[in-house]
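Quick start: load a record and inspect it. Here is Exosome complex component RRP45:
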Amino acid sequence: TPLSNCERRFLLRTIEERKRLDGRQCYDYRNVRISFGADYGCCIVELGKTRVLAQVSCELVPPKPSRPTEGILFFNLELSPMAAPGFEPGRQSELLVNLNRLIERCLRNSKCIDTESLCVVAGEKVWQIRLDLHLLNHDGNIIDAASIAGIVALCHFRRPDVSVQGEEVTVYAPEERDPVPLSIHHMPICVSFAFFQQGTYLLVDPSEREEGVMDGVLVIAMNKHREICTIQSSGGIMLVKDQVLRCSKITAVKVAEITELIQKALENDQKVRKEGGKFGFAESIPNQKITAFKMESAAVDTNNVEEQAEEIITKADPPSEVFAKPILHTPGTAQIGEGIENSWGELEESEKEEAAEEERETEVAAFECQEMETEDTSTMRETKMDEPIVLSDSEEEEVVILEPQELPKKTRTQTSSKQETTNKKAFNKRRKKKRAA
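Running the structure step on this input writes:
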Protein backbone atom coordinates (compact mmCIF):
# COMPACT_ATOMS: atom_id res chain seq x y z
CA THR A 1 0.00 0.00 0.00
CA PRO A 2 1.39 3.43 -0.86
CA LEU A 3 2.40 5.69 2.00
CA SER A 4 1.37 9.32 2.29
CA ASN A 5 3.92 12.08 2.64
CA CYS A 6 3.03 12.55 6.31
CA GLU A 7 3.60 8.86 7.07
CA ARG A 8 6.87 8.91 5.16
CA ARG A 9 8.19 11.91 7.07
CA PHE A 10 7.05 10.43 10.38
CA LEU A 11 8.79 7.10 9.71
CA LEU A 12 12.02 8.74 8.65
CA ARG A 13 11.97 10.97 11.71
CA THR A 14 11.44 8.02 14.06
CA ILE A 15 14.33 6.16 12.38
CA GLU A 16 16.58 9.18 12.88
CA GLU A 17 15.67 9.13 16.58
CA ARG A 18 16.55 5.41 16.77
CA LYS A 19 12.93 4.37 17.37
CA ARG A 20 10.55 1.98 15.62
CA LEU A 21 6.76 1.82 15.48
CA ASP A 22 6.49 -1.64 17.05
CA GLY A 23 8.79 -0.75 19.97
CA ARG A 24 11.85 -2.69 18.76
CA GLN A 25 15.41 -1.49 18.78
CA CYS A 26 17.40 -1.11 15.57
CA TYR A 27 18.97 -4.61 15.75
CA ASP A 28 15.98 -6.46 17.22
CA TYR A 29 14.35 -9.34 15.36
CA ARG A 30 10.63 -10.04 15.51
CA ASN A 31 9.34 -13.14 17.31
CA VAL A 32 9.54 -16.34 15.25
CA ARG A 33 6.80 -18.95 15.75
CA ILE A 34 6.85 -22.39 14.13
CA SER A 35 3.84 -24.72 13.95
CA PHE A 36 3.74 -28.05 12.11
CA GLY A 37 0.95 -29.76 10.20
CA ALA A 38 -0.32 -33.29 10.54
CA ASP A 39 1.84 -34.54 7.64
CA TYR A 40 5.60 -34.47 7.50
CA GLY A 41 7.03 -31.52 5.59
CA CYS A 42 4.17 -29.08 6.32
CA CYS A 43 4.72 -26.06 8.55
CA ILE A 44 3.71 -22.45 9.10
CA VAL A 45 6.30 -19.89 10.15
CA GLU A 46 5.30 -16.52 11.60
CA LEU A 47 7.77 -13.66 11.62
CA GLY A 48 5.80 -11.03 13.49
CA LYS A 49 2.65 -10.78 11.36
CA THR A 50 4.34 -12.12 8.22
CA ARG A 51 3.11 -15.68 7.78
CA VAL A 52 4.40 -18.30 5.30
CA LEU A 53 3.08 -21.82 4.68
CA ALA A 54 5.61 -24.42 3.43
CA GLN A 55 4.85 -27.85 2.00
CA VAL A 56 7.39 -30.42 0.75
CA SER A 57 6.48 -33.27 -1.60
CA CYS A 58 8.51 -35.91 -3.46
CA GLU A 59 8.22 -37.93 -6.67
CA LEU A 60 10.28 -40.52 -8.57
CA VAL A 61 11.44 -39.06 -11.90
CA PRO A 62 14.28 -39.70 -14.37
CA PRO A 63 17.39 -37.63 -13.57
CA LYS A 64 18.92 -34.88 -15.64
CA PRO A 65 21.29 -36.17 -18.35
CA SER A 66 24.11 -33.93 -17.08
CA ARG A 67 23.80 -35.28 -13.50
CA PRO A 68 22.52 -38.87 -13.61
CA THR A 69 23.38 -39.67 -9.97
CA GLU A 70 21.84 -36.63 -8.30
CA GLY A 71 18.28 -35.87 -7.27
CA ILE A 72 16.32 -32.81 -8.35
CA LEU A 73 15.31 -29.89 -6.16
CA PHE A 74 12.48 -27.57 -7.14
CA PHE A 75 11.44 -24.41 -5.25
CA ASN A 76 8.37 -22.26 -5.82
CA LEU A 77 7.12 -19.20 -3.93
CA GLU A 78 3.61 -17.79 -4.48
CA LEU A 79 2.32 -14.35 -3.57
CA SER A 80 -1.48 -14.30 -3.49
CA PRO A 81 -3.93 -11.40 -2.97
CA MET A 82 -4.85 -13.05 0.34
CA ALA A 83 -1.51 -11.86 1.74
CA ALA A 84 -1.76 -8.29 0.45
CA PRO A 85 -4.12 -6.55 -2.00
CA GLY A 86 -1.18 -5.38 -4.12
CA PHE A 87 -0.32 -8.92 -5.27
CA GLU A 88 -2.06 -10.06 -8.46
CA PRO A 89 -2.85 -13.75 -9.08
CA GLY A 90 -1.24 -15.51 -12.02
CA ARG A 91 1.27 -12.75 -12.68
CA GLN A 92 4.98 -12.96 -11.89
CA SER A 93 6.08 -9.58 -10.66
CA GLU A 94 9.69 -8.45 -10.38
CA LEU A 95 9.54 -8.94 -6.61
CA LEU A 96 8.40 -12.56 -6.99
CA VAL A 97 11.14 -13.37 -9.52
CA ASN A 98 13.83 -11.90 -7.26
CA LEU A 99 12.51 -13.80 -4.22
CA ASN A 100 12.45 -17.13 -6.09
CA ARG A 101 16.01 -16.63 -7.34
CA LEU A 102 17.23 -15.72 -3.86
CA ILE A 103 15.59 -18.81 -2.31
CA GLU A 104 17.15 -21.06 -4.95
CA ARG A 105 20.58 -19.57 -4.32
CA CYS A 106 20.10 -19.89 -0.57
CA LEU A 107 18.92 -23.54 -0.52
CA ARG A 108 20.20 -25.14 -3.73
CA ASN A 109 23.50 -23.41 -4.48
CA SER A 110 24.60 -23.62 -0.85
CA LYS A 111 24.52 -27.46 -1.13
CA CYS A 112 22.60 -27.73 2.13
CA ILE A 113 20.83 -30.91 0.90
CA ASP A 114 22.77 -33.99 -0.20
CA THR A 115 21.34 -34.53 -3.68
CA GLU A 116 23.32 -37.74 -4.26
CA SER A 117 21.41 -39.43 -1.44
CA LEU A 118 18.24 -38.88 -3.48
CA CYS A 119 19.42 -41.24 -6.24
CA VAL A 120 17.56 -44.58 -6.43
CA VAL A 121 18.88 -46.04 -9.71
CA ALA A 122 21.67 -44.13 -11.41
CA GLY A 123 20.54 -42.70 -14.72
CA GLU A 124 16.98 -44.05 -14.36
CA LYS A 125 15.16 -42.94 -11.21
CA VAL A 126 15.86 -40.29 -8.63
CA TRP A 127 13.77 -38.41 -6.09
CA GLN A 128 12.49 -34.98 -7.05
CA ILE A 129 11.97 -32.86 -3.93
CA ARG A 130 9.51 -29.99 -4.43
CA LEU A 131 9.20 -27.13 -1.93
CA ASP A 132 6.11 -24.94 -2.27
CA LEU A 133 6.00 -21.73 -0.26
CA HIS A 134 2.78 -19.75 0.02
CA LEU A 135 2.62 -16.29 1.58
CA LEU A 136 -0.46 -16.08 3.83
CA ASN A 137 0.05 -12.58 5.23
CA HIS A 138 2.49 -9.85 4.28
CA ASP A 139 3.93 -7.53 6.90
CA GLY A 140 7.43 -7.07 5.52
CA ASN A 141 10.61 -9.16 5.18
CA ILE A 142 9.20 -11.98 3.06
CA ILE A 143 12.59 -13.51 2.23
CA ASP A 144 13.56 -14.16 5.86
CA ALA A 145 10.23 -15.82 6.68
CA ALA A 146 10.35 -17.86 3.45
CA SER A 147 13.91 -19.08 4.06
CA ILE A 148 13.07 -20.15 7.63
CA ALA A 149 9.87 -21.89 6.50
CA GLY A 150 11.71 -23.66 3.66
CA ILE A 151 14.54 -25.07 5.74
CA VAL A 152 12.14 -26.08 8.57
CA ALA A 153 9.89 -27.93 6.12
CA LEU A 154 12.88 -29.72 4.53
CA CYS A 155 14.19 -30.79 7.94
CA HIS A 156 10.73 -31.98 8.98
CA PHE A 157 10.04 -33.88 5.74
CA ARG A 158 10.25 -37.70 5.46
CA ARG A 159 10.39 -39.47 2.12
CA PRO A 160 9.15 -43.06 1.63
CA ASP A 161 11.67 -45.87 1.98
CA VAL A 162 12.75 -47.62 -1.24
CA SER A 163 14.35 -50.98 -2.00
CA VAL A 164 15.89 -52.05 -5.32
CA GLN A 165 16.08 -55.70 -6.41
CA GLY A 166 17.57 -56.01 -9.86
CA GLU A 167 15.50 -53.68 -12.04
CA GLU A 168 12.47 -53.64 -9.73
CA VAL A 169 12.01 -50.62 -7.47
CA THR A 170 9.51 -50.95 -4.61
CA VAL A 171 8.28 -47.94 -2.66
CA TYR A 172 7.07 -48.80 0.84
CA ALA A 173 4.13 -47.11 2.52
CA PRO A 174 4.62 -45.43 5.92
CA GLU A 175 2.76 -48.33 7.58
CA GLU A 176 5.24 -50.88 6.17
CA ARG A 177 8.48 -49.00 6.80
CA ASP A 178 9.30 -45.78 8.57
CA PRO A 179 9.88 -42.85 6.20
CA VAL A 180 13.45 -41.62 5.74
CA PRO A 181 14.48 -38.02 6.51
CA LEU A 182 16.50 -35.97 4.05
CA SER A 183 20.24 -35.67 4.63
CA ILE A 184 20.80 -31.99 5.35
CA HIS A 185 24.35 -30.74 5.92
CA HIS A 186 23.55 -27.27 7.30
CA MET A 187 20.68 -24.81 7.61
CA PRO A 188 21.16 -21.52 5.71
CA ILE A 189 18.95 -18.69 6.97
CA CYS A 190 18.50 -15.23 5.43
CA VAL A 191 18.70 -12.02 7.46
CA SER A 192 17.65 -8.72 5.87
CA PHE A 193 19.01 -5.25 6.63
CA ALA A 194 17.26 -2.06 5.53
CA PHE A 195 19.29 1.12 4.90
CA PHE A 196 17.96 4.67 5.10
CA GLN A 197 19.36 7.99 3.93
CA GLN A 198 22.06 6.41 1.77
CA GLY A 199 23.28 3.97 4.39
CA THR A 200 23.36 6.37 7.35
CA TYR A 201 20.79 4.38 9.36
CA LEU A 202 20.39 0.60 9.57
CA LEU A 203 17.47 -1.57 10.68
CA VAL A 204 17.26 -5.36 11.04
CA ASP A 205 14.11 -7.22 9.93
CA PRO A 206 12.20 -4.29 8.35
CA SER A 207 8.41 -4.23 8.47
CA GLU A 208 6.13 -3.44 5.53
CA ARG A 209 5.98 0.30 6.24
CA GLU A 210 9.73 0.49 6.77
CA GLU A 211 10.28 -1.27 3.44
CA GLY A 212 8.23 1.43 1.73
CA VAL A 213 10.61 4.13 3.01
CA MET A 214 14.01 2.39 2.77
CA ASP A 215 16.62 3.28 0.14
CA GLY A 216 18.09 -0.22 -0.18
CA VAL A 217 18.26 -3.66 1.39
CA LEU A 218 21.08 -6.14 2.06
CA VAL A 219 20.25 -9.85 2.42
CA ILE A 220 22.85 -12.23 3.88
CA ALA A 221 22.27 -16.00 4.03
CA MET A 222 24.44 -17.74 6.61
CA ASN A 223 24.49 -20.95 8.65
CA LYS A 224 25.37 -21.43 12.31
CA HIS A 225 29.01 -22.23 11.36
CA ARG A 226 29.33 -18.58 10.16
CA GLU A 227 29.62 -19.61 6.54
CA ILE A 228 28.07 -17.09 4.14
CA CYS A 229 25.90 -18.99 1.64
CA THR A 230 24.74 -16.03 -0.45
CA ILE A 231 24.65 -12.25 -0.25
CA GLN A 232 22.59 -9.79 -2.27
CA SER A 233 22.24 -6.01 -2.23
CA SER A 234 19.39 -4.23 -3.99
CA GLY A 235 18.45 -0.59 -4.21
CA GLY A 236 20.30 2.56 -5.13
CA ILE A 237 22.85 2.56 -2.31
CA MET A 238 26.60 2.07 -2.17
CA LEU A 239 27.79 0.17 0.91
CA VAL A 240 31.19 0.47 2.55
CA LYS A 241 33.21 -2.59 3.60
CA ASP A 242 32.73 -1.78 7.29
CA GLN A 243 28.93 -1.78 6.88
CA VAL A 244 28.96 -5.22 5.26
CA LEU A 245 31.23 -6.61 8.00
CA ARG A 246 29.00 -5.18 10.71
CA CYS A 247 25.94 -6.73 9.04
CA SER A 248 27.70 -10.11 8.80
CA LYS A 249 28.47 -10.07 12.54
CA ILE A 250 24.83 -9.29 13.35
CA THR A 251 23.74 -12.05 10.97
CA ALA A 252 25.90 -14.63 12.76
CA VAL A 253 24.20 -13.86 16.08
CA LYS A 254 20.68 -13.93 14.65
CA VAL A 255 21.27 -17.14 12.68
CA ALA A 256 22.58 -18.95 15.76
CA GLU A 257 19.45 -17.96 17.72
CA ILE A 258 17.05 -18.97 14.93
CA THR A 259 18.84 -22.29 14.33
CA GLU A 260 18.53 -23.18 18.00
CA LEU A 261 14.83 -22.29 17.90
CA ILE A 262 14.29 -24.50 14.82
CA GLN A 263 16.04 -27.47 16.44
CA LYS A 264 13.94 -27.13 19.60
CA ALA A 265 10.73 -26.96 17.56
CA LEU A 266 11.66 -30.09 15.58
CA GLU A 267 12.56 -31.99 18.76
CA ASN A 268 9.30 -31.03 20.47
CA ASP A 269 7.23 -32.08 17.46
CA GLN A 270 9.03 -35.42 17.24
CA LYS A 271 8.54 -36.01 20.96
CA VAL A 272 4.80 -35.24 20.79
CA ARG A 273 4.32 -37.55 17.79
CA LYS A 274 6.00 -40.43 19.63
CA GLU A 275 3.93 -39.89 22.77
CA GLY A 276 0.71 -39.73 20.75
CA GLY A 277 -0.39 -36.32 21.99
CA LYS A 278 -1.84 -33.42 20.03
CA PHE A 279 0.39 -32.43 17.16
CA GLY A 280 0.03 -30.43 13.99
CA PHE A 281 -2.28 -27.47 13.61
CA ALA A 282 -4.73 -28.98 16.12
CA GLU A 283 -2.50 -27.63 18.87
CA SER A 284 -2.27 -24.16 17.34
CA ILE A 285 -5.93 -23.53 16.54
CA PRO A 286 -7.17 -23.19 20.19
CA ASN A 287 -4.42 -20.63 20.81
CA GLN A 288 -5.55 -18.63 17.74
CA LYS A 289 -2.19 -18.94 16.06
CA ILE A 290 -3.53 -20.09 12.70
CA THR A 291 -6.92 -18.46 12.25
CA ALA A 292 -6.20 -15.04 13.79
CA PHE A 293 -3.44 -12.78 15.01
CA LYS A 294 -3.57 -12.88 18.79
CA MET A 295 -1.72 -9.96 20.35
CA GLU A 296 0.20 -10.62 23.51
CA SER A 297 -1.22 -8.89 26.57
CA ALA A 298 0.92 -6.04 27.86
CA ALA A 299 1.74 -6.10 31.57
CA VAL A 300 0.57 -2.93 33.33
CA ASP A 301 1.96 -2.08 36.78
CA THR A 302 -0.46 0.06 38.81
CA ASN A 303 1.35 -0.03 42.14
CA ASN A 304 2.85 3.48 42.05
CA VAL A 305 0.15 5.13 39.94
CA GLU A 306 -0.64 7.87 42.46
CA GLU A 307 2.97 9.00 42.82
CA GLN A 308 3.58 8.89 39.07
CA ALA A 309 0.37 10.79 38.41
CA GLU A 310 1.26 13.55 40.85
CA GLU A 311 4.70 13.92 39.27
CA ILE A 312 3.25 14.07 35.75
CA ILE A 313 0.58 16.60 36.76
CA THR A 314 3.04 18.87 38.57
CA LYS A 315 5.34 18.88 35.55
CA ALA A 316 2.50 19.54 33.08
CA ASP A 317 1.02 22.54 35.00
CA PRO A 318 -2.61 21.54 34.45
CA PRO A 319 -5.59 23.88 34.89
CA SER A 320 -7.19 24.09 38.32
CA GLU A 321 -10.31 22.23 37.16
CA VAL A 322 -8.41 18.95 36.69
CA PHE A 323 -8.43 16.61 39.70
CA ALA A 324 -4.96 15.48 40.67
CA LYS A 325 -5.83 12.21 42.42
CA PRO A 326 -5.95 9.07 40.24
CA ILE A 327 -8.87 6.64 40.48
CA LEU A 328 -8.19 2.89 40.50
CA HIS A 329 -11.24 1.07 39.16
CA THR A 330 -9.85 -2.47 38.85
CA PRO A 331 -6.34 -3.90 39.04
CA GLY A 332 -4.55 -3.20 35.79
CA THR A 333 -6.49 -0.02 34.93
CA ALA A 334 -6.16 3.54 36.15
CA GLN A 335 -7.81 6.90 35.47
CA ILE A 336 -6.11 10.18 36.30
CA GLY A 337 -8.62 12.95 36.96
CA GLU A 338 -12.21 13.26 35.84
CA GLY A 339 -11.56 15.62 32.95
CA ILE A 340 -12.64 19.22 32.32
CA GLU A 341 -16.23 20.31 31.69
CA ASN A 342 -17.58 19.86 28.21
CA SER A 343 -16.81 22.90 26.06
CA TRP A 344 -19.06 21.82 23.20
CA GLY A 345 -22.37 22.99 24.77
CA GLU A 346 -22.62 26.21 22.75
CA LEU A 347 -21.99 24.35 19.55
CA GLU A 348 -24.69 21.83 20.42
CA GLU A 349 -27.26 24.65 20.95
CA SER A 350 -26.31 26.25 17.66
CA GLU A 351 -26.60 22.90 15.98
CA LYS A 352 -30.10 22.48 17.45
CA GLU A 353 -31.09 25.92 16.13
CA GLU A 354 -29.74 25.04 12.70
CA ALA A 355 -31.70 21.78 12.76
CA ALA A 356 -34.91 23.63 13.73
CA GLU A 357 -34.39 26.13 10.92
CA GLU A 358 -33.86 23.30 8.47
CA GLU A 359 -37.11 21.65 9.64
CA ARG A 360 -39.01 24.91 9.12
CA GLU A 361 -37.54 25.29 5.66
CA THR A 362 -38.53 21.74 4.77
CA GLU A 363 -42.10 22.34 6.04
CA VAL A 364 -42.40 25.56 4.02
CA ALA A 365 -41.06 23.81 0.94
CA ALA A 366 -43.55 20.95 1.41
CA PHE A 367 -46.46 23.43 1.81
CA GLU A 368 -45.40 25.26 -1.36
CA CYS A 369 -45.23 21.96 -3.22
CA GLN A 370 -48.79 21.11 -2.06
CA GLU A 371 -50.08 24.52 -3.26
CA MET A 372 -48.40 24.02 -6.61
CA GLU A 373 -50.03 20.58 -6.91
CA THR A 374 -53.52 21.97 -6.11
CA GLU A 375 -53.07 24.74 -8.67
CA ASP A 376 -51.99 22.20 -11.25
CA THR A 377 -55.01 19.99 -10.55
CA SER A 378 -57.43 22.98 -10.81
CA THR A 379 -55.91 24.05 -14.12
CA MET A 380 -56.19 20.49 -15.36
CA ARG A 381 -59.84 20.39 -14.41
CA GLU A 382 -60.55 23.68 -16.21
CA THR A 383 -58.81 22.45 -19.33
CA LYS A 384 -60.78 19.21 -19.13
CA MET A 385 -64.09 21.12 -18.89
CA ASP A 386 -63.28 23.22 -21.95
CA GLU A 387 -61.99 20.33 -24.02
CA PRO A 388 -64.44 18.62 -26.40
CA ILE A 389 -65.66 15.10 -25.53
CA VAL A 390 -64.62 12.40 -27.98
CA LEU A 391 -66.68 9.20 -28.25
CA SER A 392 -64.99 6.45 -30.20
CA ASP A 393 -64.87 2.66 -29.82
CA SER A 394 -62.20 2.02 -32.39
CA GLU A 395 -60.11 3.79 -34.94
CA GLU A 396 -62.20 2.54 -37.88
CA GLU A 397 -65.55 3.90 -36.59
CA GLU A 398 -66.62 7.43 -37.13
CA VAL A 399 -65.69 9.97 -34.52
CA VAL A 400 -68.58 11.97 -33.06
CA ILE A 401 -67.69 15.19 -31.30
CA LEU A 402 -70.24 16.67 -28.90
CA GLU A 403 -69.53 20.32 -28.34
CA PRO A 404 -71.49 22.33 -25.72
CA GLN A 405 -73.58 24.95 -27.53
CA GLU A 406 -73.34 28.35 -25.92
CA LEU A 407 -76.48 30.49 -25.79
CA PRO A 408 -76.33 34.18 -26.53
CA LYS A 409 -76.20 36.60 -23.61
CA LYS A 410 -79.69 38.09 -24.33
CA THR A 411 -81.42 34.74 -24.22
CA ARG A 412 -79.62 33.92 -20.98
CA THR A 413 -80.82 37.12 -19.27
CA GLN A 414 -84.39 36.65 -20.57
CA THR A 415 -84.65 33.07 -19.27
CA SER A 416 -83.25 34.09 -15.93
CA SER A 417 -85.83 36.97 -15.53
CA LYS A 418 -88.79 34.68 -16.49
CA GLN A 419 -87.76 32.13 -13.89
CA GLU A 420 -87.57 34.83 -11.23
CA THR A 421 -91.11 36.12 -12.01
CA THR A 422 -92.62 32.60 -11.92
CA ASN A 423 -90.93 31.90 -8.60
CA LYS A 424 -92.34 35.17 -7.10
CA LYS A 425 -95.91 34.37 -8.24
CA ALA A 426 -95.80 30.89 -6.70
CA PHE A 427 -94.46 32.32 -3.43
CA ASN A 428 -97.25 34.94 -3.23
CA LYS A 429 -99.98 32.32 -3.85
CA ARG A 430 -98.65 30.19 -0.94
CA ARG A 431 -98.72 33.18 1.42
CA LYS A 432 -102.34 34.01 0.54
CA LYS A 433 -103.43 30.40 1.18
CA LYS A 434 -101.73 30.38 4.62
CA ARG A 435 -103.42 33.65 5.61
CA ALA A 436 -106.83 32.38 4.56
CA ALA A 437 -106.34 29.21 6.57
